[in-house]
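User: I'm putting together a small comparison set for a docking exercise, and I want a reference complex before I start. The sequence is below, and the ligand is 2-aminohexanedioic acid. Could you produce the 3D structure with the ligand included, as structure tokens?
Assistant: Of course. I'll restate your input first, then give the structure tokens for the complex.
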Amino acid sequence: MKPLLIGGDWLRTSHGAGNVNPSDTADVIDTHAEAGIAETQTAIAAARDAAPAWGRSTPQERHDILRRAGDELLARREKLGRLLSREEGKILPEGIAEATRAAQILHFFAGEALRQTGELIPSVRPGITVEITREPVGVVGIITPWNFPLAIPAWKIAPALAFGNAVVFKPAELVPGSAWALADILHRAGTPPGVLNLLTGPGRVVGQAMLDDPRIDAITFTGSQATGARVAAARPGGRVQLEMGGKNPLVVLDDADLDRAVHCALDGGFFSTGQRCTASSRLIVTEGIHDRFVSRLADRLAALKVGHALEEGVEMGPVVSQDQLDQDLAHIERARREGGHLRTGGEVLRRQTRGYFLAPTLITGTEPAMTINREEVFGPVASVIRVRDYDAALAAANDTPFGLCAGICTTSLKHASDFKRKAEAGMVMVNLPTAGVDYHVPFGGRKASSHGPKEQGTHAREFFTETKIAYTAP
Ligand code: UN1
């Protein structure tokens, strides 16, 4: 059994939960300890005790720990990428790429620990100086989803530590293995006892106990809209950062490079089995290119090799769980009932191993008001909305409660520039997939997708530090 990490000690629990491979449900990767309310409270107390000294540690100490952890992650990226793919179901090259990205994130924030600055402002009153500095927030609760088992924990834990906060980390139940590996690496890299605590276990127990505990100063969460709403409700007015769903549009205009547009839709909609909040799930296509685009994409999807995530040559792995598969199928069924046309996919695939394999699915003839265009599916499913021209495309793109990212494929500078300005999204991609972002750049959305300061890049410090303004007279 893989234990919890509390106050610098590894702790076993009487109960454990199996970590099952979604490509092969007969493959139980490991068993992980399950924290309850008592363990959660002990971890929070440990973080509370450790926070003051850690907050006073030098930037060099924090840099060195993150640097060492990043180095190890990079050196072991093939093995850790394999574990990630085995427990989450994205294909091995994607798993290894994610392990590499997590290492790069640790290295980036190792540097950020050294780059902290303040401001010195001459007062309007004689002789007085004003200093603006940043201080750690204290204890940060980190709740992460299953779709990026290493990268998302890395981009929350690394800045939390870099800026001097103690962490209580609760990963998604479906991917405890990657979370455990990351905590183990950071622990051995020299994180002092109590500064990083790992609580594997059920969200409704551990996550709830974290939300309820006032000794946690801030919560950063990535996951579903429903859970995000619970986090917000539990902490009214509190320091909360929420990254929730998306219903991201990819606009394809008549003048687009067809090959590029098909590639953007394929990558953005279906790589990582479409299980990304940045996925291009609404393909908004103008009339002149619609039929060619749909037919090329449908052919490519029908030929996509779907199978065991660790098998050589497989292009798309399984969806993550039976629950997720059921939800995906229900979305497809509802889209058909509401008038959508199933162009390709829609069926569960049998392979040599028992896994949750779903054929990549394209639904055409949809309208913005249909459920498939309003609710996030979080699977290998995209819908096509046919529109007359650019203006109609822009209106359809913005016709959603979400606002994470928005993409456009066009060779028109005029339309690209207009779209960058008018898309109601935190991130806009021109001639690129909506998913797959740089690790050193801020990340985040608008509207119902996000709440609070942006994550990552230099903007990460907004959430993980408090500003102090000090006036001094001689
Ligand atoms: C990416 O597209 O590279 O949960 C990152 C998600 C996002 C991360 C996407 N928070 O899918």
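The mean pLDDT is 98. The first helix runs from residue 37 to 55.
User: Thanks, that's exactly what I needed.
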